[in-house]
Amino acid sequence: MWTTKTFLTKTKRGNILKIVREHYLRDDLLCGSAACNTCPHKDDELVLETSPKSPCALFDFPHYLVLDTNVVLHQIDVLEEDALTNVIILQTVLEEVKHQNTAVFQRLLDIISNKKRKFYSFVNEHHKDTYIERSPGEKQNDRNDRSIRKATSWYEYHLSINSLDGKFPKIILVTDDENNRKLAQEDGIICCSIKDYIENVSGFVGLVDKLSKNVMPETCSKDALYPAHLTPSQIHEGIRCGQLYQGTYHASRENFLEGNASVNGFEKSILLQGHIGINRAIDGDIVAIEIFPKEEWRKPSNIVLEDKTEDPENILEEETVLLDAAKPVDNDDEITPTGKVVGIIRRKWRQYCGILMPSKFHGATRHLFTPAEKRIPRVRIETRQSEILASQRILVALDSWPRNSRYPLGHLVRALGPIGDKDAENEVILLEHDVPHARFSEAVLNCLPPNDWTIPEEERQKRVDLRDVCVCSVDPPGCTDIDDALHARRLGSSDGLATYEVGVHIADVTYFVKPDTALDKEAASRSTTVYLVDRRIDMVPELLSSNLCSLRGGEERLAFSCVWEMDENANVLSTKFHKSIIKSKAAMTYEEAQIAIDDSSRKDEIAKSLRVLNKLAKKLKKKRLDSGALLLASPEIRFQVDSETHDPIEVQAKKIVDTNSMVEEFMLLANTSVAQKILEEFPQCAMLRRHPAPPPANFDTFLKAARQQGFEIDVSTNKSFSKSLNEAVIPERPFFNTLLRIMATRCMQQAAYFVSGSLAADHYYHYGLACPIYTHFTSPIRRYADVVVHRLLAASVAGAGPHAALLDARRQTALADTLNYRHRHAQLAGRASVALNTHILFKNRVEIESAVVLAVKRNALQVLIPKYGLEGPLYLPSEKFTYNEEEHVQKCGDVVLKTFDELTVRLSLDSSNLQHRKLVFELVEPHVPGFSYVPDAGNMEVDDVAETAAPSSEKTHKKREIPAAAAAPKPSKKRKSRRK
């Protein structure tokens, strides 16, 4: 049976176009019920049981459930529990869910595919007895509700006349829409809300806790604390008229009553302050902003402020402290555009990890949840398991934020494990940073070759055989995902200069990862390998990452080679690319390679090759720096981990040797060479990487701090900036220049992937590397961007067209956005892992260490301990210290504290707040009477501090896009307490 719909539409040229759509209806679609004796089911098609046992006390008879769209969208956490079975999911619901939330849609498909759950998908939109047309003037939502009621009635009738013995399960419609329930009851349909149903299910502890509290926020006007949000139409009109602006809200980590929003057309972010100014926006939300008149603009408060209120009622505290700290100023350079949130355009909520705050009342069911992420406000949830959950890390989903609630409302998703348990804490890190870390699916594993795979003969015929070339890899200790190797050999001479063949050989991951396979899709979704202190979350399965794609010593491997002819001054004479087969002569660590270079007695081929590479790398580096490349630094460390418990037992600075820079220089050169090639061949769809120049405002605080030390830093160009950094040296403070570079790094913007056709050529520039064009080619084992680049390069070299997806600009731009998101979150996860292991290390440990001031706040100093690469706030009492906001200094009598000052601090761990265990910094020197910590001389010993090197938070993370600075010399000696 066919139905047709005819539409008339007007084209851009003004022509009238007639569109006819046909809809095919069938009468042979199966109901899926074992109670039906008419539908010709096969055994595997009988999903719904003949006489299912009712789990709900409200309905003491066998029944099937039909769910409406909103129940699925908002209660997916409940549906994933085993409590509900024999559920009918209509096509109408599936399509609506897919349209509104793809993540929930995928979770629903996973439930349906689990045969034990007995969820049956019924194609009601193509059944002749359940399909309905949309009435004139009827809203789509109303039509869909009517379609769900129609299908529910049909199921009841169908089973009643086709049951085996006249006994059949009843059909219950579960919907939270009161009007829909009313209309259903008028049609004789049994119905109830999801809350009523779940609250009467027995045998599943904690199921009620998972119910979503999805209250419409703007309907709660009684005792409202917050202004109402504008409607979508009001927001649209306001933005169109230029009265409102759209931006992404970013909450402050240091001040819970402050945040900002990035808005197009404004050089600086828009400052948002106070409960009313933020108006229920949560970090990441896309919001509508009303910007205040210029005379009301302020500068950020410069105060560290935490929400420490103990389970407050629905009241908002006075914000005079915040406002006093952010008074309007006359200096145009310091003021920031200020505004308020007037509406939410799109929520970006996710599930959050944290702990339950203990209630003051015994037996209470309403509790506050404290998220691990400081930028997220506390959440009100209801649970009857508080005594059990009090010692657990838990996962909570946000549901709504009514106007009359100080905090958003949410519900429990699941417990993650005991607080302090290493596995539970690592799970928190991965979930908080949205790192995909589930086991690879069977579909993905089925894409892999056998464990004993060897290179096929036909593949050998297609490639350049480089097995006799002295290729070797140089990586950190313990690295198993070796994705690059190098070689260099003398060719002869040209114009009186010696010439060399130099090759970078990269693992050919794309041979194994074919486009649009399950393996490829999973790698694209993960986007990057994530390195924690004690584990690695691979982008591709271990068979590839640590075996078949890893360029291990003495084993034949497939590679993609970039080979140059160079003269002795590191000038590139020619470049070629080809697929190859290599057999690495050695897999070396940085230190092993450095020893081979330095050992003059070694005359072997490997040592000779490394010496040539090292000599050329130094010349390449000089050229880059002369062109304006920045040599920056960041505070990082490396942990020594117990081989059995995987707990940290000591921390050490990462050692930097010449071979670190040697490998880096050739990786940079390979990336640049490949970028030029793929852009030449595919000017509209090349995957590139850019690093925008920082806006001048980013340097304000940095320049003022440098000026206090007597240095004028020229940031007009990256070349002048690099020159200024090189000259800013204090001989008696050898760590000062490194510290300056650490602070300079924080002025930078994030580098990002992009598709060439999406930006003008003058936006391709990489500021940090002083490079007009750049990409990522050298790490396809751990970065999906490199996989895309390999495919483009292969098409360029072969002269054949690439896979169709690579030419789809919209798809590639969306992929670039995913790559940037995953890359950023992988970095943050690595840092969080360092913080976790630092807390474990300092659990029973107190140290007195040298520190330096990174920033001066109104009530605190942000200090860095070079030995550990740790930083945090050292709070200063206002009754003792006076803050000069013009000079950014703190004074107490003769003691003046400013940025870059050297201090001695006592470092310990405060575990009183289980959610936010934190390192406590106490001032030792300079001594402030009545405030500074005074060590007990009888329990102290003098100890030298190890050298602090430029860091790496990734245990096996090999390359840095912006090179780290050289190791810092030893600070002055300090005192160190014995372990307690």
Automatic annotation (TrEMBL):
Listed transmembrane segments: none
Gene3D superfamilies (UniProt xref): 2.40.50.690, 2.40.50.700, 5'-nuclease, Nucleic acid-binding proteins
Flavoprotein as UniProt keyword: no
Keywords, alphabetical: Cytoplasm, Endonuclease, Exonuclease, Exosome, Hydrolase, Nuclease, Nucleus, RNA-binding, rRNA processing
Domain PIN as annotated: residue spans: 63-182
Cell location: Cytoplasm; Nucleus, Nucleolus
InterPro entries: Dis3_CSD2, NA-bd_OB-fold, PIN-like_dom_sf, PIN_dom, RNase_II/R, RNase_II/R_CS, RNR_Ribonuclease, Rrp44_CSD1
Pfam annotation, one family: PIN_4
Presence of keyword Transcription regulation: no
GO cellular-component term (any): nucleolus
Molecular function per GO: 3'-5'-RNA exonuclease activity; endonuclease activity; RNA binding
Region Disordered, residue ranges: 942-980
Record's compositionally biased regions (Basic residues): 971-980
Cofactor: Mg(2+)
Domain RNB: 463-799
Any one Gene Ontology BP term: rRNA processing
PANTHER family linked: EXOSOME COMPLEX EXONUCLEASE RRP44, RIBONUCLEASE
Family per record: Belongs to the RNR ribonuclease family.
Record protein name field: Protein DIS3 homolog
Organism phylogeny: Eukaryota, Metazoa, Ecdysozoa, Arthropoda, Hexapoda
